[in-house]
Amino acid sequence: MVRHRRQSGAGFLLVGDTWYMIGEDRGNSWHPDVNMYSSKDLQHWKFEAKIIENGVTHPGLGKDRFIERPKLLYNKKTKQYVVWCHWEGKNYGASEAGIFYADNITGPYKFHKGERPLNVKSRDCNVFVDDDGTAYFISTIDENQHLGFFTLSDDYLEAKDCKWLFKGMRREAPAIVKVDGVYYMLSSACTGWDPNQCMLSYSTNMLDGWSKLEPIGDRIAYDTQAASILTIKGTKQTTYLYVGDRWMDPDLPQSKTIIFPLVFKDGKCEIVPLDKFEINYKTGEWREL
Ligand code: GAL
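Above: the input record for the complex with beta-D-galactopyranose. Below: its predicted structure, written as tokens.
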């Protein structure tokens, strides 16, 4: 288990052997800047930059606007880095997505736009890039009722299409990983900062055929809510890591980022709630400490 401060709702991008992490800097509780850190072992982190800053990147940010769950993408065609996030206003009434882009990973990031993608009210969110480069923005839509699977344009700057899935199931904090051709999604119920039972669903088609939700982990997801799933490809094995937020620990600014191994075996998936473990980044193997 690895704890970090002030990187809530984190999104990750692997560049060579370096992990870049962006997240909500909740130092200013309800108006987080977005910080970027880098690491080779997911334990020792170097601060890179404040990539999105209140009052700087956008005049409304820090006043009537705030960001949650920023996620980082790299577009091979345009060679640009793109951030998608939840772009919110008073009482979560805006229900929009924010899009930023930059030529360099550490920025400067420019505001592209903030809007309801395809006019759909959108809140908690994540991104997923498939093997062929197709990117998706997955968010909790229509007043937290369903999940919207938005297919992004080739430059990752626009939502092209939206498939409404998990209808009426009120899921949020979606995090998707692809393992041996199968998409697995973890998600939570909508209980604000309080943790609840994480649920798993899987499908061989991103936009169809998702299995019935089934519980994974303990009743409160080991006091976390999913933020990301990481894939560590080693010479001997591929290891998957669950990254979750332990909100309000004990207050919003001190919320923690918690990492656990996520094990896939015989079509089943399990969170291994270890207090301490280490990873061999060459072989991909991990062991409890
Ligand atoms: C959670 C959500 C967080 C944040 C929070 C506000 O359910 O996952 O990202 O929006 O609610 O209460």
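Notes for the reader.
The chain has a mean pLDDT of 96.
The first strand starts at residue 4 and ends at 5.
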